[in-house]
Structures are given as structure tokens and as C-alpha cells.
Fold Transketolase.
Amino acid sequence: MISRDTHDRMANAIRFLAMDAVEKANSGHPGLPMGAADVATVLFTRYLKFDPKAPHWADRDRFILSAGHGSMLLYALLYLTGYEDMTIEDIKGFRQLHSKTAGHPEYGYADGIETTTGPLGQGIANSVGFAFAERKLREEFGADLQDHYTYVIAGDGCLMEGISQEAISLAGHLKLNKLIVFWDDNNITIDGTVGMSDSTDQHARFRASHWNTIAVDGHDPEAIAAAIEEAHKSDKPTLIACKTTIGFGSPNKAGTHKVHGSPLGADEIAATRVALNWPSPAFEIPQDILDMWRQAGSRGASVHKEWANRHAVASKKVEFDRRFAGDLPAALAPAISAYKQKLAETKPTVATRKASEDALEVINGVVPETIGGSADLTGSNNTKTSQTASITPTDFSGRYVHYGIREHGMAAAMNGMALHGGLIPYSGGFLIFSDYCRPSIRLAALMGIRVIHVLTHDSIGLGEDGPTHQPVEQMAALRAIPNLVMFRPADATETAECWQVALESKGHPSGIALTRQNLAPARTTYSEENLSAKGAYVLHEDASAQVTIFASGSEVEIAVKARELLAAKNIAARVVSVPAFELFDAQTPEYQASVIGNAKVKVGIEAAIRQGWDRFIGTDGIFVGMKSFGESAPYKELYKFFGITPEAVVDAVSAKLA
Amino acid sequence: MISRDTHDRMANAIRFLAMDAVEKANSGHPGLPMGAADVATVLFTRYLKFDPKAPHWADRDRFILSAGHGSMLLYALLYLTGYEDMTIEDIKGFRQLHSKTAGHPEYGYADGIETTTGPLGQGIANSVGFAFAERKLREEFGADLQDHYTYVIAGDGCLMEGISQEAISLAGHLKLNKLIVFWDDNNITIDGTVGMSDSTDQHARFRASHWNTIAVDGHDPEAIAAAIEEAHKSDKPTLIACKTTIGFGSPNKAGTHKVHGSPLGADEIAATRVALNWPSPAFEIPQDILDMWRQAGSRGASVHKEWANRHAVASKKVEFDRRFAGDLPAALAPAISAYKQKLAETKPTVATRKASEDALEVINGVVPETIGGSADLTGSNNTKTSQTASITPTDFSGRYVHYGIREHGMAAAMNGMALHGGLIPYSGGFLIFSDYCRPSIRLAALMGIRVIHVLTHDSIGLGEDGPTHQPVEQMAALRAIPNLVMFRPADATETAECWQVALESKGHPSGIALTRQNLAPARTTYSEENLSAKGAYVLHEDASAQVTIFASGSEVEIAVKARELLAAKNIAARVVSVPAFELFDAQTPEYQASVIGNAKVKVGIEAAIRQGWDRFIGTDGIFVGMKSFGESAPYKELYKFFGITPEAVVDAVSAKLA
């Protein structure tokens, strides 16, 4: 039992590390760590199941600091509880180049950072994926191996962002009762008091989404403890509203927005030292308090050992370990090869969204860790296969999530699943609505995690739904995100190949852009090699070519037809299929040069804007694509109207050669 | 008084127009128009204040079909009530190329379409802006000129999207009691029943945000009417939950997701004709019913005339008309000129976010229709000036909105304000969080409306906040959106010029990317001409130049220093400042060629990815910028670490020339 006095001093250790690190960096956010220190102290000293010596323990509780600007709270906790890769020197290096202690918590920079947060609302939405993964894996592997909580600290900003509504309504619907969110209810935002911009009754709001809610004094450790214990008994996710004072302890700035995102200043820190009776100099923690913290950090070792004993003899140990290592089943590659062989025989004319479903039917049969889903477009995205029964609030034996009309919440939850480990999530949505979940896609790329977004209806080829639904700039905008690989396969074979690359890539997220409309096969012979993995490859070679036509996805068919029309005019042309810009950029210069070739005229075709295509065709190349938003009409008319046709290619090439 | 039988037949007119148009197009969404026909009939025949002969009447009630896929509901209403530019031929042309009746309602295609909807949640979020504009203009011009309602029909999808939470919490906070939302509560989404993905108690949720809520049978006209009258008396915005049957009237498909987004088929339409006792052939409305509808459409003429009489003698008539015409005060241009002259004298070294505040101080002094705001970053975005007092729920005399941490809701509300007329909204946010509101920015561009986004902290120059907050790909991704002009000014003078262009552009939205860090002035002499309006211009000319350096924003300073370093090595260089790609593309080929020039080496500098820059420097040009996400550190260290320095430019140029 930790006495109140000891608790206060332990919490103050967090406060002063935060204050002093922000002061030294002359930049950062002391307010939240100082305000939420009591909540975090109770959680980490009494409840959180973790073992700093084994930070990747699969059954640890997950702690998500959704209010990522309060990063010093997390760094202080990691240091105090004894994470070996978080030293006092790391704390002193707060916000300095190459330090582990970046301005906002960055996944991968240090153990114990479960996810990258800072963009508000993302952490709480990730946490739905963490809690989902625990629930699903508990279903699959039993409570002996998976039985943990997901705890979140969220601020007012997280709760105001729309993504939080998608997250909480999904979590409440799915009854994720091991998800516990502490709301740091300090009534302060950057502009001033919350009341300047919001008057939401958060308790009523969460209860409307079937959450349990509890209100406590966020500076009363016993009240916080009682709330956590009550939450543990709930059959619903729980919001614990913790009334706190931002910058708690600062005599002149506590409770104001001045302490949110700026150093307190030497004088105010000195005053706070007096007020909190904390004589230790900066970055020095009294040994007895550090010992207490380290003892709290070692609490989990015995529980971890018990788990390890169960794990060692578990019947599903090998599969469990494979899943958490992120390794794919050996059966995947042969299954894809066999499927590609079949495609080379059947040569289907098919929409790539349907081809994706067919590929998934193969994949889901051999990769049990895939979790499919869609933002309420299941029949349009073709993301459900025979193996993926729907998950319901009371039955997690399935493998398919009806995410609802919540693209942002979906993408963020998928990030949480991938970060948790044990699952490979893939989504379904329209390419145009990647805009709705772009912040979460970006974070997946920044973190380098394996989530796969199925993005159908990928151009004006969707037809009548019109400009609001037709992607024009989305491919360019997504290709712009570093470390995201965007695929746009041309037929069923490329679709299978792209899926294989996406699954085999542990270090980046993928998007697969797919058509609504049918496409003739671009590839008609079997290739053991995954040609799409090279990003671009020569589909039709011609040593005497005057023209090279580069195209992606549905426009490869147009390129091939244009080649035939040009041949009839005695103009020889090569065709290069470009399923993934980013993968091509990773090839050797020699390979790249061989694909680009030396034909006099270079043409790029994509039913989208030109941006990015100069990389293939140069600034003097011909680009056949879109320059504006789309129109509402049957898609074949649209291709004609916007001049994206084999004939238009022939005309432009002929003019250039004339 | 319309009898129940007449009401039913009037509503059925909508149903059959929708069914038959979808059937003819073989594409579209009959379910919502059939389900919501009763609600729309009551609203349009008894309450909506509108005059089809004067569709732009400034004091009309606004009707927003947030569930835009139900577009045939709106088109049917416009035709039936007698909008002259919506004929039965237009209805027959549903979803055909160049027809007014696009798949989703497209603003500008026909009168009576108040906003473009289809991407779910946007309409309800726009409506907050419409209702805000009415409230603000009523405050300013009095109820004689502005006193109208904003009505919305929203579906389950709109309410599941996170943006709806931002919208309703803002509307509830601001007590926008003339906003009335009909929720088409049909319990059906594309995947099946709502219960598959959601179990939110919407009444409780809306009440948590201080809305009035009412539940009615959505097929009972008197209950609907009573609810509207109750809503009119409310001091809060109102949600009227209308329990409806999707596809009402279809004997075999009503109430199922089969009728949501597909034609019913000839057999089912025939069966529906029998079930609803509607013998008229497709696209023929019985004359008595058409007459009743036209009579409903003429209801507003007398009210409009009374308004016109008040308007004719109103003391603020001239200002009111100017504001709704969207014309700027004549005082703006001279004020900007005078301010630029002052800058040429003072030559301030200043962050462009601060320069933007200074420009706004000038602008807001002479343009009373600007409505500023920020998504809780007022002090960081520098968007508040001496003229813009904060608007509060009880005091709309101010001109500044504390939008809260709601970027998406902010951008969508701004679209509503601009569409309403009478106001020019500008936002404040971080450039990185343009990702959070991208769907609304895209719609502003698609609609071609004047909203202005102030986007500060525009690169790694923000420093310690790190990769989650540092834009790397956002400029490229925003430049990719057709009809959006993205500005990135280099100093205070360019900032003022960019503001002037943004304000003077009625036909497109603008984004202004601004630095956190101080910049030396790029322009030191006065130019009467707005050089930034050309998109790119020669800042430093040199007829003998071997090198041209193109740069935007904060990197112009680096370009200028590189030029000096090169000169010391006897390498002559030109410098071109590029504040806006899109405006440069609109210049004459001659002007463009004169700016691009013929120097042997071309260099582009932007602390962002290369995508898009080949337009200036060619694929063989040198690009000095970012290839990855950023890092957390003081910004000067980051510029060095990422090699975005004058020295790096000199090294690259020297290597190229060697």
C-alpha cells in the first residue's frame, strides 16, 4: 500500500521531470503531465500489467497517451518504472535531434511507446483497435494467453475531434469492456476554457454510445483507484472523467491555458518547487521515490512469469508466437502461385475489386490473422470472403468488422490492431474517402506498420455517382505520403501480386486502388516472379519502339489497345505497367533505366491528375488523364468525354512524331 | 389545408419520379427519396420559405440534403415546386453527361441546390455554417432582412461520420436554434441494418450537445408538422427523428438495404404502382397533383414580396446587397497598397503567420464581412485581430469563431457560410491538420467558393513538435486538388499580396501556408503590381545566369543566400519566388517561359517533397527538400540535418556544373 504522502511525491516526480525537461528544451507541454500525474501514478503503481524488462510481452496491458502533446508524462513513467532504454539522459534530451524523447511520442523510438500520438483523437481511436485485438485474440487463443486491458489518457481535444465519436460509438457497439479511457477533464484548451468552444455533456455523450462513465477527482488517488476497480467490473467500455487542474502545483499558472504548451519559466518552476516541497534539483529524483517507482515497475515480473509458464505449455504456442512475430504462414506463397497459374489459364475479364475478392478468398484461406472489414460498403468493396464471418458484439469468432460509416475510426482502429500484434487488418472503402481517413493512414506510414486499405471505385470509371465520388487527385495525394505504398493493379494477376506484396511488407502500410468496372487481362501468361513487386515492368517489349506507354490500373488496357492501333500505323510501341510508383523507386538504377527505356515519345495514362507522372515521362512527355474534377455519367461516356481513350493516345503520339 | 389523401399523392409524385429516374438511368438511390417523401412534402408544402421564381432570394430558408445520394428527392422537389431550370427533361436526364441532375446534388448545376452533398456528414456540417450565417447577419442587418431557417435531411451515414459530432456539438454550443435536422431514421445502411455497426442512442447523443430532440412517425404528415412547429419554438437546434421505411411503397423491397442504392426493376416498380394506386406512366404527374405542387411552390411569393418591400427601404440596403453579391469594399485595394508601401519602408523580419495577422489587421478594418476563427490555435495561427471580437452563444456581434478542436467541422461550416452569402470565412489551423478537413476543402474547390484557410506551421520549420506535426507532403497533396489555390508566401509583402488574391477570388477556395519561424524580407522595394498574383515571378534577375533557383515561402530566403554564395564563386544565379503554382499555370506561355528562363541548372527548394516541382525544374533539375518524414528538434538543426541550406544548394549546383 502506497501512502498518500508517498503517492504525492511519486506523482511530483513526474511533474518535475516534465517541468524541467520542457524548461531545458525551451519547448513543450508541461500542463498535462502535471495535471494527469496522479491518475498515471495510480494506474502505473497499482493496476497496469507491464514488465519494463519485457516491453513486448504480448499480454501486457496497453497504455495509450492519446493526448500526445503530454509526451513527458509517458517518458517520465518509462524512466521512473525502469524501462532500460529510457535513461535520465534521454529525458534531458527531450525534443532534441535523434533523441528518443521526441516532441510527441513516436512509435519505435523507445520501448513502451505503444503508438504515435499527437494528432488529436488518434490515440483514443487506436485504442479501439487495441481492445478489439485483445478481445479477438482472447477468443482465439484463450484467456491464458490474452487477457489484458487497454488504458487511455485523452484530453478535451481528443474528445472534440470527430474521430473520437466514430471510435466511441464503435467501441460501445462492440462492448469492448476492457477499454478504459481516462478523460483528463481540466477544462482548458489552447484558446482558453473549454466553455469557449464546447458545452458537451461528455458523460451523456458516452452513455449514448453505451459506455459506462464514472466521475472522480483526478487528484484523489483512492477515488481514481476505486474508479478503475469499478471499470474492471463493467460489461461496457468505461470513461473515467478525472477532474484535474492543468499544471497542478504551479502556484501562478495552474488551471490556465498558459501552462498548456509553454515552459513555466525558471521563476515559476522555483515557486512550484516550494509549493510542492520538492527541493531536488532538475532531473534528480530522490532515491526513495525512485526506488518506489522501480518497485512499481517490477510489480509485473511475477505475473509475467506466470504467463510465460502458461505460454510455454500452451497448445497454440507456435501459432501464437508466429502471429505476434508478424510472420506469414508458409502456405501463402504457394497458394498465390497456384492462383496465378489458374488465372493464366482462365484469363478472366473482371473488375479488380472482384479480382481482389478472389485473391482474398485464397489469402484468407491460408492466413488466419487477416481481419477484414468495410466502412459500410461490403458489397461494393468486395472485402468479405467465405472465411470471414461477421463479428458481432457477442460473438468474436468471426473475422469481419462492419465498421459502419466511419472511415477515420476504421483506419485508426486498424492501426491499433496492427500495433497490438497478432492480426493483419484490411479495410474496405472508396478511394475518394481515403480523404476522410488520411490522418490515420499518414500515421500508419509514419509508424511503419502493416495495415492494408482496399480502396475501390478508383477513378471516373465508377461512372454515375459523379464528381463527389470520383477520385482525381487521391492517387497523387496518397503517393505523396512517405512510406505508404499505393498499388493500382491492372488485372486479376496484378491484383494477386499486389496483395502478396502488401501482406509480405511488415514495414509499411499499403493501399490497393481497385476498379468498379471490368478490365481485360493485361497478363495472360504465368510468371512465377511477382512482377508487380518491382513497381513497374515491361508488359510489351519492342526493341524498335518509338513510343513507350506507361499506365496503371484500368488504363493499362487503354495502353495495350493504343499499342495495337499504333502498330497498324507502323509505329512501334512498348507498354509498361506501373502498379506501384514507390516500389519502382526502390529498384536499382539499371532496372529503372531498362524499364523507362529510350523511346522517343513517352506517354503516361492514368484517369487522374498528372502530378507525379513526370518521373516516368519527363516534363515533355504526353500525359493522358484528368485536369479537373469528374462528371456524372455512364463511365464509358466519361472516358470519351475526358479524352482518355486509345484513339486520344494515338492522336497525341502522331502529332508529336509528325 | 392539404388533405391526407392529397398529401399522400403529392408524396407519391416524389416517389415515382425517383423510382422512374433511377430505373431509366439504371443507377441511383431510390430508397431515401421514397422513404423521406412525406417529410419533404410537409416541409415544402407548408413550412419552407422559398420562391422558385427567385431562387437566390437572400432570406429564403435553406434546405440541405445531407444524404446526397437521395438526390432525386431534391430534383423531384425542384421540378414539382416549379423551379424554371428543372424540367421533366432534366429529371429524365438523371445521371447523364452534362445534365443538371447529377448522381449527387452538385452546387451550381441547378437553382435550389444549396450545396454539393454526397460525401456523408458534409451537408449537416455545412448547415451549421448556413445557420451561423443567418444568425450573424440577423445580428448585423436585423430580422427584417435576415430571418430564416436552415433545414436538413440527414441519414444514418451522416450521423455516424465523425464530422457530424463536430457539427452538432458546435451548433449546440452556439445555440443555433433556427437549425432543424430531420434524421431519416430508417434503420438501414448499405451493409444491412444499422444494428450491424451501431447502437448509438441518437436522441441522447444530440441532447448531450444541447439539442432539442423530437421523435415522429416519418410517414404521418400531421406529426411531422407538429414537430416542425415545436422546433420553431425551441431555443436550441432541433433534431426531428423521423421513423421511416426506406423505399416506402415498394411491396417487396421496402425496409431493406436492397432498395438503398439500386434500381427497383421494372416488375417491382409496376408492383409499387399498384400498391400505391399510381396509374400514371413514368415521368407523368397527374395534373391536379402537379397543380397542388406548383401552388405550394408559389406560397412564398407574397412573403418574398413583403421582404422585398422591406429590403427596398432598408437603411443598410446597399451594404446588404454588396455583401450578398460577394463584391469587396472599394477600400480594400488602396489599403493593401498603403500597407505594402509601409512594408517596403519597415522591411520587417517576421514569421509569415505574424505577417498574416498584420495583413488581416488591415483587411478586417475595411472588409466587414470577414469571419475569422481557429480550431483552438488562435495564438499560434495569428488569426484574431483588433476588429474581431469573439462570438459567444449569446452574443453574435463579434467576428471571430472559436471553432474548438474541430478542423473538419470548421471547414465544412465555413463552406456553409460562403454558400449562404454575406460572409467571407477564414480559418486558422496547422497545415498538417489540413488532412483532418481535406474532404471539406475538396468540396469547396469542387463548388468553387471563397473560403480561405490560414495554415500555419508549414514545414519542419516548426521545429520540436516533430514528425506528427511537420507537413512534408501536405503542400503537394493540396496542390493536387483541382481549383484550390495554395499560397506559400515568402515574406510580409507576399503574404499581403496572397491575402489580396484570395479575397478577390470569388471562384475558388484558397489555402495560405505560413511559417512559425521568422523570415528576412524577400521584397524590399514597393511594387504597385501584385506580383504574387502571377504565381511565380523573378525576384532576382541576371541575364548571364547559369542557374535559376526556384523556391517558395521560407525557402526563398535560402535561395537568396545561395545566390550570394554562388556569386562569390563567380556563378551567376537568378531567383524565382513561387508563391502559388496554380496561378503560375494560368499565366500566358510567354510569361511562363520568361520566368522559367534558360539557365543551364535549375534548382527547386521547398522544405517538403519534390512532387510537383518538376514543372519548374524538369526531371533533371536539382531539388533541395524532404524525402521522408521530419524529426523533433530545434528548427535550425532540422534544416541542417535534412540538408536544406544555402550551402547544400551551392554544393549541388557546383557538382552539376563541374
Notes: Residues 547 and 573 of chain A are 5 Å apart (CA to CA). Residues 4-25 of chain A form the longest helix (22 residues). The two ends of chain A are 88 Å apart (CA to CA). Chain A has a mean pLDDT of 98.
